[in-house]
Amino acid sequence: MKYPLLRPSPPRLSLLGGALAEIERSGTFSNYGPINSELERRFIDSLFRGVGSCVTVCNATIGLMLSIKYAVGRYYGCELDEWPAARKYALMPAFAFAAIPHAALWNHLRPLFCDVDPISWLPCMASQERLLEEFAGEVAVVVTYATFGNNLDLPPYLALSSRHDLPIVVDAAASLGSRDEAGGQFGTGFKYPVVYSMHATKTFATGEAGLIYCNDDRTISALRVMGNFGFGELRSATMPGLNSKLTEVGALLCLKKLEEIDAILEWRQCLADAYRQNLPELTFQVMRGERHAYQFMPALLPIELNRNRIEVVERLAADGIVVGTYFSPHLAEQPYFTKYARPGELPIADRIGARIISLPLYDSMTRPDVDRICESVRRVVRSVG
Ligand SMILES: Cc1ncc(COP(=O)(O)O)c(C=O)c1O
Question: pTM higher than 0.90 for the full model?
Fold first, then answer.
């Protein structure tokens, strides 16, 4: 048997003939059309339980770029890049994906990397606090991240925002479907932008698509205008803008995925639980909240194997099992970002980064598949160690 790390499963394109013909007949292919409007309504009603507003985007990276620009501009009462020049950093976790520092750099903000929690792998509050004290008045925005779909505790970020006088943006790329302790979709009710991805490799798989949610209508209205060239009523630019719109075909895929997402999440949770039970020799991320949109199964190799990770990955590949190493190298180890970032102490991100592997997880996997992979992992770990 061969096991890829991921097997993208967007809604079955071959079954969408009628709906695609309907789009063709309507003559509306983009520009926040009727299918997109229906999708946004359904997201708010079914996932966010009627609380807040949302706007679709063509992908989450563009969603982060727009959200940072808007959050910073609004907070400091300015447009373009006219916020106080001293505020030149965006604070973000080092153990995260390249989309965050890229989105900051497109906004002329340099990455300032904080460390992560050793247990939940979420951004470490103490590390963020320390850096905000040390760089008081120099940080324009905190971009935090709900690591691998884990439910970040959001209320402390409101306190952080007030204490240090700055806005927040949340990267929730892998979190569509994750539920917090109260059973609500992660992000529900948050007053700063929360950005989700619906990339083909995510659990909420489509192709390329993203969503910005915020419990503030004004924010979402402004982001909608910014995502359509900054056009006000008369196709005349009134705000900074670009084109972030999702096509009607893209919105149709999202609508179809929304119909099946609960069953997908339940199944992935079963597979994840099986991994946890079968592999006591690995260390797993401790999850907060009620449900998690597992994209793959991340785990830490035993500490004594951290110099042998390449060998472990190669031996598993020889067994037909493709294993990833997300997010290693972490952001502060990537040359383009280190050119612009402040170097800092990141002991936990370094340690997690050195030991992490990502095991296969996808919708069509079975329990016996997990058993077979675990057997192979146990054998390889024993023989390499
Ligand atoms: C943590 C994180 N942030 C942002 C993104 C970017 O999402 P998109 O591919 O929709 O631009 C990803 C995508 O993999 C991600 O994992």
Answer: yes
* Ligand 1 center to 25 CA (angstroms): 33
- Render pLDDT for 26-49 as a digit per residue (tens, 0 to 9): 999 999 999 999 999 999 999 999
Number of other residues whose CB lies within 10 A of the CB of residue 165: 13
User: What is the Cα–Cα distance from 23 to 249, expressed in whole angstroms?
Assistant: 8
pLDDT tens string 273-294:
999 999 999 999 999 999 999 9
Q: Whose CA is nearest to atom 12 of ligand 1?
A: 173
pLDDT at 207 over 70: yes
Q: Cβ neighbours of residue 90 under 8 Å, at least 6 residues apart?
A: 68, 100, 101, 104, 107, 109, 110, 111, 112, 139, 140, 141, 142, 143
Sequential DSSP letters for 244-294: -PPPHHHHHHHHHHHHHHHHHHHHHHHHHHHHHHH-TTSEEPPPPSSB---
